[in-house]
Specification:
TIM Barrel, 8-stranded parallel beta sheet, 12 helices, globular, 3-stranded antiparallel beta sheet, alpha/beta, 14% strand, 329 residues
Length: 329
Amino acid sequence: MLPETGIVLAPLAGGPSTPQLAAAVSNAGGLGFLGGAYLTPEQLREQLAAARRLTSGSLGVNLFVLRDALVDLAAIAAYAEELEPEARRLGVELGEPRFDDDAFDAKLDIVLAAGVEVVSFTFGCPAAAAMAQLRQKGTAAWLTVTSSEEARAASAAGADALVVQGPEAGGHRGTWDDRDDCDASLLELLGEIAAQESIPLVAAGGIADRHAVIAALDAGAAAVQVGTAFLLCPEAGTGAAYRRALAGGRETGVTRAFTGRRGRGLVNAFMRAHPGAPSAYPHIHRLTSPLRAAARSAGDANGFNLWAGTSVAMASAEPAANVVARLRP
């Protein structure tokens, strides 16, 4: 289920994703996605219904695949102590660092019942039973991969397409574990995976103009997934402080400071102040959530994650349909 334009909207979970943005991209000939992560199951149901009212085109939903792995509890406790001054300054309590699977089963049931055309997965491969449900329903399953090894495993599991994510991408790295050694460039990674896999590849990471789209297609991709270029669109749910920071187009960096998982965003004071955050997702995400919410409410762009890819300077405030049109090869 690849769009005829070759343009796929990245899921943009955590605020920028809206039914209006997904529908606008689908109406322009792309494939609009909703970010299912962080929503409650009922919120996801409502957003899907809203998107369906706005478009007759195909839609996708992205879900996180989370496994309860061992984490360093002492490191999490030390990080919580490090963050206490931030909490006192903002007048909030730190969140409880804990694991949960983001209501995976309930959300999968919702997207299957809604007849979503594509479900993509990040951070891992769903269990065989979930993949079987998707096949039975006729729903395409896309798996996010960041290495040749992950690509082989995803293909063997029955993926219909691979979202090949390079380190240039904004937001969380889609690695199946939170590694530091997965930074081959997008084009290099595409070449490696295209040489070993015959299923369609969707390129993601730093793609914000037609030149980058064509380069990805030439490297073996069948389509491209674009996120940062849509963040300033009027249909996006990007907050005011976030928009101002994006318009400034400053440098990006990779950090675990906000969630305990590597993610690329605009460098800000919080990132610089906490370079040693432990690898523990979603535990650190839960811990810092009240801090980030308070900073957003105060319009303080130095206090929350400003996910953005390396081509952030190319983002502009224009309708989503215009972005699809200017990226279309």
